[in-house]
Design the sequence.
């Protein structure tokens, strides 16, 4: 009997993918089930809960639509322009997404708040002041937070259009409009529904930002209702029911996005640097310039204010803050490794399984976005408790949960690239008999370097700033950086908290930069 | 060969003995920081008990509710006064066995289970350089239309819940109209205290819901005497934090000693500046000077835990109605 290495490799890939899927099922549905089981059943929702569902849907739809609508022209402008500091600008513009939400809100209010720059300017001009709190404030905050993500996802899309296609377009006399119709539109059709879905789901589980920017209980989201059920009413049945509703919304959105998205079918290329031939006219240059400057101002000014507020206090920070930063770094790096391994396994399984089965796996990968962090934390606590003291594993659990939470982003970024690799290089690799590790190392990973680097940077930065489940578990292993930041704030030490926020921002950005730089190393050359 | 073996056995026995004398105290996360009350309490108690005090920090009440009888520890400290009914209903606590006569809290406290270790009043804090004439009563706050407020959601914050019960006690069935009025003055409602206080210090509102003791921090640690709490004629809602002994305590003796320590002068002298709140068992003339000099409300408003539990849901319904009208 001869062993077919191709079949062995496929079986191994499917097995690894299923293993990942099993962990995601435990994380998302097991935790929910544990909460429901503990509650001894689900509790019916009340009128106020349905109001929360409605508000959650409206703000998430608006936020996702606006984020993507703005990201398309900004990413397009960034994709077809080359200027000094472009790489740094793209990197910095990604920063709002990795900020802890509390810090992001304070930065945003320093610009748009009652005492913020915009209102100071308006007052100076004798104009009426702008009130930022309300549905528009919620959407503004969510766009501030998610525009960077949408822009980066679409930039990846632009970068993935082979240089040969633009050359071919140029020989055919394509202008900007033709390029858009023939090359960019198919790419957008492929990526925009996914980007929209991811942002919609992020906004679906928003809680503190929505309430604060929304100006009061009108802006109650499902996640806040879940918190209320847990902490105010101790009604775990209602918490589980609300979490189920949240999953329902996610599933509906997922099905919709899956039906709208179309593979771009642009094929592979030779990895040449992209050269654009349609960037000529002054008007177009001005338009792109205005978009880039506008986007940069919107995203970077609040960030600069966070930096200025915190900079004077960094050196005087208590030593525990630095210890916590070290601990968070370990968690972040661990989560990054786990996320990449899980994502690659799941992405391979999605492609091998194909069709509806692949779609189910893919959807499972996104499900963590719709899961309530509170339900996950409480559910895992209930699941682990019969086996061991959950508090002995605080950092490990935090790492694994962060990995589960970052996986949706990583999958979004890596799956299209992997699909491309399989489509363009798969047959060649097959014919050369390249399978398993060798194929991963020689064919797949080098071509996935860019999305891998980006996904790694994103995961590391996100888990650096995550408060997540650790508050319930933490006990012996000491605090993480976001916990210390929170402790400083609750002890009135707002200056130190601003300093700690800057450390967090710096560490997150540094991690992101290192991984992302590694990813772009080849492509930029 | 026998000597190392004896040494090992001796060491193990000693380690066992040392372990037997560890008091485990479950506490909120803020006890884990060097700037909170944790280190001083540990040092102070260890000096008198000849034992080791170990804090386990995290979300206290959720753990109590989730773990039930499996919860390991001797003492729980840091339960909010509005959470005590929930904690009591778990049936997991033992009598503290202390004489409560040293207590100096402004409300009647006869509780065999829980002892408050610090307290304060909720109040609207303002910056004197931005608001020159603060309202002198809740009624005046309602009448004024030149004041903007930031406060916390009663569904997610202890201070927010205290405000809910405060308004409910002052206005009863008229609370709906009061919330409608307050909604017009409200810049925003936040999930937690930190967001609200941070926004207030950044100038987003004239007043923020906090505590009458908040200005003490700014005076003592920042040399800033611009922050003050507006004292209202109608009285202020009392809120405190309490400790109790777990019935399953491995060290019931030490646990009772710890409860006695909470009532001691040493603990009480330290807690004001460690927690920026009033001591629970110390006459006012012995408080740290800055606390003594802070204006103190004359009337304490407080609901027994059963009353508070009964009022919570109807008061929240009024609040939600009034705020979203």
Sequence:
């Amino acid at each position: 009997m001869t062993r077919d290495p191709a079949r062995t490799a496929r079986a191994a890939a499917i097995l690894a993918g299923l293993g990942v899927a099993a962990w995601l099922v435990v994380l998302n549905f097991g935790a929910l089930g544990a909460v429901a089981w503990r509650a001894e059943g689900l509790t019916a929702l009340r009128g106020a809960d349905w109001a929360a569902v409605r508000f959650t849907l409206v703000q998430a739809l608006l936020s996702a639509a606006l984020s993507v609508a703005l990201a398309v022209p900004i990413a397009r402008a960034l994709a077809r322009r080359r200027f000094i500091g472009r790489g740094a600008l793209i990197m910095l513009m990604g920063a709002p997404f990795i900020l802890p939400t509390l810090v992001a809100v304070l930065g945003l209010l320093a610009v748009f708040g009652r005492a913020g720059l915009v209102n100071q300017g308006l007052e100076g001009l004798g104009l009426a002041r702008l009130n930022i709190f309300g549905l528009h404030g919620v959407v503004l905050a969510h766009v501030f937070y998610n525009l960077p993500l949408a822009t980066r996802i679409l930039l990846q899309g632009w970068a993935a259009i082979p240089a040969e296609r633009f050359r071919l377009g140029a020989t055919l006399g394509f202008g900007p409009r033709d390029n858009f119709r023939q090359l960019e539109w198919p790419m957008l059709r492929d990526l925009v529904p996914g980007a929209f879905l991811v942002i919609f789901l992020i906004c679906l589980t928003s809680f503190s930002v929505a309430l604060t920017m929304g100006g009061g209980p009108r802006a109650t989201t499902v996640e806040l209702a879940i918190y209320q059920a847990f902490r105010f009413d101790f009604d775990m049945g209602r918490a589980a029911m609300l979490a189920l509703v949240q999953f329902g919304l996610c599933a509906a959105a997922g099905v919709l996005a899956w039906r709208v998205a179309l593979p771009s079918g642009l094929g592979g290329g030779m990895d040449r640097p992209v050269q654009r031939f349609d960037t000529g006219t002054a008007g177009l240059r001005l338009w792109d310039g205005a978009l880039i400057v506008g986007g940069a101002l919107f995203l970077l000014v609040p960030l600069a204010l966070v930096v200025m507020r915190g900079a004077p206090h960094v050196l005087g920070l208590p030593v525990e803050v630095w210890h916590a930063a070290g601990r968070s770094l370990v968690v972040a790096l661990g989560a990054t490794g786990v996320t990449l391994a899980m994502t690659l396994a799941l992405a391979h399984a999605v492609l091998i399984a194909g069709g509806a089965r692949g779609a189910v796996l893919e959807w499972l990968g996104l499900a963590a976005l719709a899961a309530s962090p509170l339900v996950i934390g409480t559910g895992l606590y209930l699941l682990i408790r019969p086996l061991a003291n959950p508090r002995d594993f605080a950092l490990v659990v935090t790492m694994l949960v962060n990995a589960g939470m970052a996986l949706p982003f990583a999958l979004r970024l890596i799956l299209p690239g992997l699909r491309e690799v399989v489509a363009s290089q798969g047959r060649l690799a097959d014919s050369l008999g390249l399978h398993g590790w060798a194929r991963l190392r020689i064919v797949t990973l080098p071509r996935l370097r860019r999305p891998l680097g980006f996904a790694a940077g994103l995961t590391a930065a996100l888990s650096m700033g995550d408060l997540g489940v650790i508050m319930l578990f933490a006990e012996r292993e000491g605090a993480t950086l976001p916990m210390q930041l929170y402790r400083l704030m609750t002890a009135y030490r707002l200056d130190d908290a601003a300093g700690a926020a800057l450390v967090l921002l710096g560490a997150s950005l540094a991690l992101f930069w290192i991984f992302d730089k590694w990813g772009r190393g080849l492509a930029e050359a | 060969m026998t000597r190392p073996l004896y040494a090992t056995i001796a060491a193990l026995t000693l380690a066992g003995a040392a372990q037997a004398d560890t008091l485990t105290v479950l506490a909120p996360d803020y006890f884990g920081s060097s700037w909170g009350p944790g280190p001083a309490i540990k040092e102070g108690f260890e000096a008198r008990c000849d034992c080791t005090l170990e804090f386990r920090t995290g979300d206290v009440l959720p753990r109590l509710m989730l773990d039930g009888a499996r919860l390991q520890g001797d003492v729980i400290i840091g339960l909010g006064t509005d959470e005590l009914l929930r904690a009591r209903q778990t049936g997991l606590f033992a009598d503290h066995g202390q004489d409560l006569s040293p207590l100096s809290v402004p409300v009647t406290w006869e509780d065999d289970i829980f002892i408050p270790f610090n307290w304060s009043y909720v109040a609207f804090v303002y910056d004197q350089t931005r608001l020159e004439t603060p309202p002198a009563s809740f009624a005046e706050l309602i009448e004024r239309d030149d004041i903007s407020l930031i406060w916390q959601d009663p569904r997610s914050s202890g201070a927010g819940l205290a405000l809910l019960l405060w308004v409910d006690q002052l206005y009863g069935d008229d609370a709906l109209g009061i919330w409608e009025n307050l909604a017009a003055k409200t810049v925003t409602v936040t999930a937690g205290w930190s967001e609200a206080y941070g926004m207030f210090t950044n100038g987003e509102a004239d007043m923020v819901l906090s505590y009458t003791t908040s200005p003490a921090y700014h005076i003592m640690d920042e040399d800033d005497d611009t922050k003050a709490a507006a004292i209202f004629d109608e009285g202020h809602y009392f809120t405190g934090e309490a400790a109790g002994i777990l019935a399953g305590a491995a060290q019931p003796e030490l646990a009772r000693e710890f409860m006695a320590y909470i009532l001691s002068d040493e603990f009480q002298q330290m807690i004001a500046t460690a927690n920026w709140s009033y001591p629970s068992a110390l006459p006012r003339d012995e408080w740290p000077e800055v606390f003594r000099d802070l204006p103190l409300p004359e009337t304490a408003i407080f609901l027994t835990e059963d009353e508070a539990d009964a009022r919570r849901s109807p008061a929240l319904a009024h609040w939600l109605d009034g705020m979203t009208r």
Q: What stands out?
A: The two ends of chain B are 84 Å apart (CA to CA). Chain B touches chain A through 52 residues (CB under 8 Å). The longest strand of chain B covers residues 115-127.
